[in-house]
Amino acid sequence: MPKVGMEPIRRRQLIDATIASMGKHGLADTTVQTISRGAGVSPGIIHHYFGGKDELLAATMRSMLQQLRDDATQRLAAADSPRARLEAIVDCNFAPDQFEPRVVAAWLGFWAQAPHNPALSRLQRINARRLHSNLLHALRPLLPPERAERVAVGLAAMIDGLWLRFALTGAIDGSAARAVALGYLDSELNA
């Protein structure tokens, strides 16, 4: 008989083990066995709490997106100007916890799998729309509507591209990526 109150603890434990397994093995070699071994539980626990690997992967991506959203919400609440809001958005995407190797591996796995997995694809679209909406909201007081839209698209691409460059090469860290993204933003705002 499972202990009362264990479900949120087990779910978190399995999500953390999924991220760790993706960091160590990559998505293709992350299995129910590698996850359960990392969590110190039997493989049946994954099926009990999530129904299977695909559902656990979707829950893991939702958890990572929620952490990113919580960070953005906290930073945006402290921002006192449109420019500060833009900086907060850039900062949360290049925060140190987004550059942990296991987190990088998990994001890469999700992005690679999203075109083939409807649940992950839906989560990716929600995240992209949220980023675009936050950027556009902050840019509207600073630029005419058409330019605000263009700069929002460009800055979102810059954020994703710089993050991906780090993930694939390890040659750039969050602070360097932040500086490049904010340099692009400043050049667009001053044009």
UniProtKB/TrEMBL annotation:
<keyword id="KW-0805">Transcription regulation</keyword>
<dbReference type="InterPro" id="IPR023772">
    <property type="entry name" value="DNA-bd_HTH_TetR-type_CS"/>
</dbReference>
<keyword id="KW-0678">Repressor</keyword>
<dbReference type="InterPro" id="IPR009057">
    <property type="entry name" value="Homeodomain-like_sf"/>
</dbReference>
<feature type="domain" description="HTH tetR-type">
    <location>
        <begin position="8"/>
        <end position="68"/>
    </location>
</feature>
<keyword id="KW-0238">DNA-binding</keyword>
<dbReference type="GO" id="GO:0000976">
    <property type="term" value="F:transcription cis-regulatory region binding"/>
</dbReference>
<dbReference type="Pfam" id="PF00440">
    <property type="entry name" value="TetR_N"/>
</dbReference>
<dbReference type="Pfam" id="PF13977">
    <property type="entry name" value="TetR_C_6"/>
</dbReference>
<keyword id="KW-0614">Plasmid</keyword>
<dbReference type="InterPro" id="IPR036271">
    <property type="entry name" value="Tet_transcr_reg_TetR-rel_C_sf"/>
</dbReference>
<dbReference type="InterPro" id="IPR001647">
    <property type="entry name" value="HTH_TetR"/>
</dbReference>
<keyword id="KW-0804">Transcription</keyword>
<comment type="function">
    <text>Repressor involved in choline regulation of the bet genes.</text>
</comment>
<dbReference type="GO" id="GO:0019285">
    <property type="term" value="P:glycine betaine biosynthetic process from choline"/>
</dbReference>
<dbReference type="GO" id="GO:0003700">
    <property type="term" value="F:DNA-binding transcription factor activity"/>
</dbReference>
<dbReference type="InterPro" id="IPR039538">
    <property type="entry name" value="BetI_C"/>
</dbReference>
<feature type="DNA-binding region" description="H-T-H motif">
    <location>
        <begin position="31"/>
        <end position="50"/>
    </location>
</feature>
<dbReference type="InterPro" id="IPR017757">
    <property type="entry name" value="Tscrpt_rep_BetI"/>
</dbReference>
<dbReference type="InterPro" id="IPR050109">
    <property type="entry name" value="HTH-type_TetR-like_transc_reg"/>
</dbReference>
<dbReference type="GO" id="GO:0045892">
    <property type="term" value="P:negative regulation of DNA-templated transcription"/>
</dbReference>
<comment type="function">
    <text>Repressor involved in the biosynthesis of the osmoprotectant glycine betaine. It represses transcription of the choline transporter BetT and the genes of BetAB involved in the synthesis of glycine betaine.</text>
</comment>
<comment type="pathway">
    <text>Amine and polyamine biosynthesis; betaine biosynthesis via choline pathway [regulation].</text>
</comment>
<protein>
    <recommendedName>
        <fullName>HTH-type transcriptional regulator BetI</fullName>
    </recommendedName>
</protein>
